[in-house]
Specification:
Blueprint (H helix, E strand, L loop, with lengths): L1 H11 L1 E4 L3 E6 L2 E6 L7 H9 L4 H22 L1 E4 L3 E6 L2 E6 L3 H29 L32 H11 L11 E3 L7 E8 L2 H11 L8 E4 L5 E8 L2 H10 L5 E4 L1
Parallel strand pairs: 7-9
Antiparallel strand pairs: 1-2, 2-3, 4-5, 5-6, 8-10, 8-11, 9-10
Helix pairs in contact: 1-2, 2-3
């Protein structure tokens, strides 16, 4: 969400977080003004128009992300915005500490120096190795050559390979492949008045099955593929009749999904 949020800031010039502050983009720099008490909807506009998210998904994910920022500030007095800086709650004010750019410049400088040093070392080595001349006294001696015959019969013993044993060993050592049971596609009307955490929505069943097979490996998830009877397949990782439990599960497991009532 941080990536999408800052893309929205760059696209629309300013985006506000309720009860947190207002971010603006000015010549490549991010400015933060604390305690903006309204939300102008530009972040939602970016999610719906630029990313083509539906209204329910955009509203749910953005609200969850804004709430997590507020909770993090209350608990630890700081919130890290990846690649940009840190929100700090100090003296009843929220301060935005930008990520210092000189760290990246130092890394680039050290990288260039390392490459130059390595290149210089290679050049010096090549110059010193090619310019070496050795003055040696050459002496020629004539000696009778003696023919020596080496019997290599014993060293070239043929090894007989039992192909039957290879097939047996190969069959024993071949790893057994794990078979994942395919999901049962269930209809929406089977779970009326239930809340599900949706990890993905697809129009093609094969795509939904693919996501299901990647998520089923996590034992904490109770994965299902639910069909709405017309055009959509929802991949659910959790289902409950209590909306509060669904919200708690979504936050505690940091799932990139949203809550939907069937």
């Amino acid at each position: 969400m941080e990536k999408y949020f800052f893309e929205a800031v760059k696209s629309y010039g300013r985006v506000n977080i309720p009860k947190v502050g207002s971010f603006s983009w000015d010549k490549g720099n991010i400015e933060f003004s604390p305690f903006s008490t309204y939300h102008d909807g530009k972040f939602l506009k970016y999610l719906k128009e630029e990313l083509k998210w539906d209204n329910e998904k955009a509203t749910s994910l953005s609200s969850t992300w804004f709430s997590s920022i507020g909770e993090k500030l209350n608990e630890t007095k700081s919130y890290m915005l990846k690649g940009y800086g840190t929100l700090m709650y100090q003296n009843d004010k929220i301060v935005f500490n930008k990520q210092k750019k000189y760290r990246k410049n130092k890394i680039l400088l050290f990288g260039l120096l390392s490459v130059l040093f390595a290149s210089a070392s290679v050049v010096i080595f090549l110059l010193t190795s090619t310019n070496e001349t050795r003055d040696e006294d050459i002496t020629v001696s004539f000696a009778e050559s003696k023919e020596t015959k080496v019997d290599n019969v014993e060293s070239s013993n043929l090894t007989v390979i039992d192909t039957d044993s290879i097939e047996i060993i190969d069959s024993i050592m071949r790893p057994s492949t794990l078979k994942n049971s395919l999901p049962v596609i269930e209809l929406q009307n089977k779970y009326e008045d239930q809340y599900i955490i949706v990890a993905g929505t697809f129009s093609k069943k094969s795509n939904a099955v693919g996501l299901y097979e990647s998520l089923i490996q996590n034992e904490l998830f109770s994965c299902k593929v639910i069909y709405n009877g017309s055009s959509l397949y929802w991949v659910s990782v959790y289902m409950t009749s209590d909306k509060l439990k669904a919200k708690s599960f979504l936050r505690s497991h940091e799932i990139n999904g949203w809550i939907k009532k069937i």
